[in-house]
Design brief:
Elements: H1 2-9, E1 11-22, E2 25-36, E3 40-44, H2 51-58, E4 66-71, E5 74-75, H3 80-84, E6 87-90, H4 102-112, H5 117-130, H6 146-157, E7 164-168, H7 176-191, E8 195-200, H8 203-209, E9 212-217, E10 220-226, H9 227-232, E11 237-243, H10 249-260, E12 263-266, E13 272-277, H11 284-300, E14 305-311, H12 315-323, H13 336-345
Parallel strand pairs: 3-8, 3-9, 6-7, 7-8
Antiparallel strand pairs: 1-2, 1-4, 4-5, 9-10, 11-13, 11-14, 12-13
Helix pairs in contact: 4-5, 6-7, 10-11
The protein binds adenosine-5'-triphosphate and magnesium ion.
Magnesium ion binds at residues 51-52, 92, 168-169.
Length: 346
């Protein structure tokens, strides 16, 4: 019955007012989430935002102190077994045995989950190859690099294709190449029908992979929507121009200010300008219209534009606009959360 609820709404996860407190610290402070099935849903937030705590409640590893959460229509507290049968989790916790080899880990998992010796060996080999771990397969996992370790973790968590996979910061600390490999894996997993809830501190990661994103900060959802919606919430976009003649830049600047009703930045390159378009009626069409009108005016004024692009603001700008501080780890000299926690304790 509850299972049908999940299916009929097409939601893999639905939470309402979800709360987890540790003493006076409200690590998760009333989170409402609706995660459509069959997509990657990004949960973006800085250190200590409450991402892991939220994931642990959804994966039935931690009991909520308030609110409700359903996974495919099953209550995470009252129907924890049903939830467990459909989810898998990897990320900031150990899931594989360090002393076993890559192959041994996957074969063991296959055997533990009821597969024959032969089927387990086959599946292990298949996954190790797909994850680029064939050479590392006979080595103990404790000797793996960070990127290899992350890949074997994910391989272990999708050995039995779960309906919902939690990936808790799957690429934190990885080099760009390893991150790209993990991203490819995530895309492949979703293409096979699994829903992925991905937590990340990296805006570009959420941007690359997720259909929808929730930005969380200090236990609360501070923004939610598609990437486009989030980006347009801070402005309609930015027009980048490169002129043929540097001498025309002051004229171009004046003209753009008027035509776009926007702040115009002169870039270090003497030929380049950027204009940030304000959120008039809040949709991208308006931005594109304004930009093309501005281009026409430049042409009429005899200003030659060699290069032009209209881009949406980055998720970094979104986070900055929402929180007044950068999202990038280590981007803040002092951690404003410390103050917040002290206030909560007082
Ligand atoms: N077991 C625990 N006991 C006490 N406090 C905890 C516990 N787990 C988490 N917290 C606190 O809850 C808050 C949220 O932590 P959480 O691990 O969920 O953040 P996060 O978003 O996953 O951060 P990170 O990006 O660093 O992994 C933090 O203030 C953290 O110190
Ligand atoms: Mg975490």
């Amino acid at each position: 019955m509850s299972n049908q609820t999940g299916r009929s709404t097409g939601l893999a996860i639905e939470t309402a007012g979800l709360v987890k407190t540790f003493g006076a610290n409200r690590a998760v402070d009333g989170i409402d989430l609706s995660v459509p099935a069959g997509t990657v849903y990004g949960v973006l937030g800085p250190n200590g935002a409450g991402k892991t705590t939220a994931v642990k409640m959804l994966a039935t590893l931690l009991r909520p102190d308030g609110g409700e959460a359903h996974v495919f229509g099953h209550d995470v507290v009252r129907e924890a077994d049903a939830v467990r049968s459909r989810v898998s989790l990897t990320g900031q916790y150990a899931s594989v045995d360090e002393d076993l080899t890559g192959t041994e880990n996957l074969v063991l998992l296959g055997r533990l989950t009821g597969h024959s010796k032969r089927a387990s060996a086959q599946r292990a080999e298949q996954l190790l190859e797909a994850f680029g771990l064939t050479d590392a397969a006979p080595r103990q996992v404790k000797n793996y690099s960070g990127g290899m370790r992350r890949r074997i973790d994910i391989a272990a968590s999708i050995l039995n294709t779960p309906d919902l996979l939690f990936l808790d910061e799957p690429t934190t600390g990885l080099d760009p190449r390893s991150r790209n490999q993990v991203w490819d894996i995530v895309r492949a997993v979703v293409a096979q029908g699994t829903t992925v809830l991905l937590t990340t501190q990296y805006l570009d990661e959420a941007d690359q992979l997720s259909a929808r994103i929730a930005v969380i900060d200090q236990g609360k959802v501070i923004a939610e929507g598609t990437k486009g919606e989030l980006k347009s919430s801070v402005g309609a976009g930015a027009v980048h121009l490169r002129l043929r003649d540097a001498e025309q830049r002051p004229d171009a600047e004046e003209l753009l200010k008027g035509a776009l009703d926007a702040q115009v930045l002169l870039e270090a390159d003497p030929l380049a300008l950027t204009a940030r378009i304000a959120n008039g009626d809040g949709n991208g069409t308006a931005a594109a219209e304004k930009a093309s009108r501005a281009l026409a005016e430049l042409a009429r004024a005899g200003i030659t534009v060699d290069n032009f692009s209209l881009g949406q603001p980055s998720l970094d700008e979104v986070f900055l606009a929402l929180t007044d501080r950068p999202a990038t780890p280590g981007g803040t000299p002092t951690d404003p959360r410390d103050d917040a926690q002290e206030e909560a304790l007082a």
